[in-house]
Amino acid sequence: MPQTKPANTSHLVRRGTKAGRDMAALLSDFGHDLPTIPAPIQRAKESRVFKYAPRRGAARPGRGWSPAKAPAQAWRMTSDQAPVFWPFVSAPALPPTGAQMGVDQLSGGSFYCDPFGWVLRDDVPATNSNIFQIAKPGTGKSATTKAFCLRMMEFGYRTLILGDPKDEYERLCRALGVEPFVIGPGMSTRINPLAMGPLGHGWEHLTAEEQRRRTGIIFNRWLVLIRGLVGSMKIDEQRRVPFGPDESDVVRNALAILTGYAAGNTVLRETTMPRLWDLLRNPTEDLIRACEYGNPRQFLDETRLLRNALGELVTGTLAGLFDDFTNITVDWRAPIQSFSLSRLNGLGDEAVGIALLCMNSWGRGLREIAEPGDLRIVVRDEVWKQMRLGLAAVESFDADLRLSRGMAGEGGDIQFANLHKPSDLLSVGAADSQAAAIAKDLLELADIKILGGQKARVARELDSMLGLGPIAQDWVSGWAMQDKGRGLWCVGDSAYKVQTVLHPLEKQLYYTNEAIEAAG
Question: Theoretical Cys-Cys bridge with 115: which of 95, 129, 175, 424, CB 3.0 to 4.6 Å?
Fold first, then answer.
């Protein structure tokens, strides 16, 4: 029987293999072939430019091979210790309320200043609204001050310039339709630092208890002023005229007699510094008895230094300026009021300081009764000239900073003080004196500090007083010195790197280099 060719059984499963056929074989039996996937094109492999070294290095001579891995070490440090690896961390952003001052360089957003708004918020570390600005001359300090005052007017704030020694606010006042008051030799403006202010109004309608309360406030304000004025007079280079409990008692009793309070008058009479000096030179029996002196001679002997110091002021620095009744009417509804003291610069820093002290007392008297919601920015330029008058002058400024929340729940002031360098506070007296200690602590009464451009040495002084840290210190001595209007805004414990931005019209209003430009 002839042999036949065996059928193709390659698709059949051989014994010992898995049973069944795949889908491709099954379709092939019925004449259907599945499409095949084209084979990928083999491309030439590119040479590797960089080769990863083994973790322990190449095991060849000279290749740094190590038989074991280097142990991992953990280090913990602050951003001040490793600023390159851990850059300065910015503080949380402040709420967008108040005056828009410029750009926060760390976040790139707008920076707003709202002192009273910050005090009312629990998430902002500020408990008072006072502002200290410390910056080198020519770095945009006055422009930042004016920009803040002008922009806060949109929120109902008014500005009071209690002494403008350089007439820097004159152009801004006139742009707002207000003419500054000029105080100086030969000028007609008179300011009585012993004015009673609003507390003396309607005296005849007050109860006896209210009269006693107001009298205590008025007399205490006058005593602070006279203590500062008398204490500014020097006996020699090392000693100043003392003003202790005996001098305070004499002045208080003299003021009570001059105002009619000692006689029980229903209406207090306003008095002046020359009248006080005249009464001390010619004491009445009532004054001698009230001060418990035996006779006029004893009174005159015991009060000689006090009397001579007041006489020196009345016939000297205060003559023609603060020696008569106030003859101006201040519109407290105006957006700004300013008192020019530039005519006093020829008399020396001490004369300017005494004028600032008198203006301080007069302005405080007018703010003792403020309407609810009457918020005001009180600008104090060249404040160091006032504080160098002695301990009493420092205490007077210290008292003003503590009134930022207003009086009796009404009103409220933002004290905006401008300084050139921190040593302005430390040079008010000897290093270990009480005046220097109080002046140094004044920084604690301002939770908002604007630190403008400074030289490296001054920046180190700021660091020692405020604990800025090396990064913030470098900003003050480097970045802030590179352009005007730059400063480190310290709000409580938080710091913000801010560039003040001015409108072109503001740049014209705030320009203060006319004298230098004319000389050039």
Answer: 129
Architecture of domain 99-189+328-519: 3-Layer(aba) Sandwich (3.40)
CB atoms within 10 A of CB 109: 12
In angstroms, the Cα distances linking 212 to 28, 262, 266, 268, 373 are 120, 11, 12, 12, 27
Among 138, 137, 161, 139, CA closest to 149: 161
Q: How many CB atoms lie within 10 A of CB 396?
A: 22
- For the chain, what is the radius of gyration of the CA atoms? 39
Domain limits, the chain: 99-189+328-519, 190-327
- Give the distance, in angstroms, between the CA of residue 396 and the centroid of all CA atoms in the same chain: 18
Averaged pLDDT, 209-224: 88
pTM for this model (two decimals): 0.76
Cβ(270)–Cβ(362) under 8 Å?
Answer: no
Kindly list the strands in the beta sheet with 412-419, ordered across the sheet, starting from the edge strand earlier in the chain. Answer: 110-113, 99-104, 494-500, 486-491, 448-452, 131-134, 412-419, 375-380, 158-164, 336-340, 181-182
What's the whole-number mean pLDDT along residues 87-101? 80
Using alpha carbons, select from 24, 21, 44 the residue that is nearest to residue 32: 24
Rounded Cα–Cα distance for residues 59 and 237 (Å): 82
Q: Measured between alpha carbons, how far is residue 124 from residues 101, 455, 490, 493 in Å?
A: 18, 30, 11, 9
Structure confidence at residue 6 as a pLDDT band (50, 70, 90): very low
Alpha-carbon gap, residue 257 to 263, rounded angstroms: 7
How many Å apart are CA 348 and CA 330, to the nearest integer?
28
Whether residue 474 has pLDDT greater than 60: yes
The CA-CA-CA angle for residues 205, 210, 213, to 5°, reads 140
pLDDT of residue 145: 94
| Coil vs helix vs strand at 181 | strand
| 286 contacts: CB under 8 Å, gap ≥ 6 | 257, 262
DSSP annotation of 339 reads E
pLDDT band with cut points at 50, 70 and 90 for residue 265 = confident
The whole-angstrom separation of Cα 375 and Cα 159 is 9
Cα–Cα distances in angstroms (integers) from residue 291 to residues 244, 256, 259, 280, in the given order? 14, 12, 17, 12
Cα angle 262, 265, 267 (rounded to 5 degrees) comes to 125
Handedness of CA 58, 64, 69, 75 (dihedral sign): negative
Specify the range with the lowest mean pLDDT, choosing from 274-283, 288-297, 420-429: 420-429
Q: Do residues 366 and 197 make contact, with C-beta atoms less than 8 angstroms apart?
A: yes
Q: How many Cβ atoms sit within 10 Å of the Cβ of residue 192?
A: 20
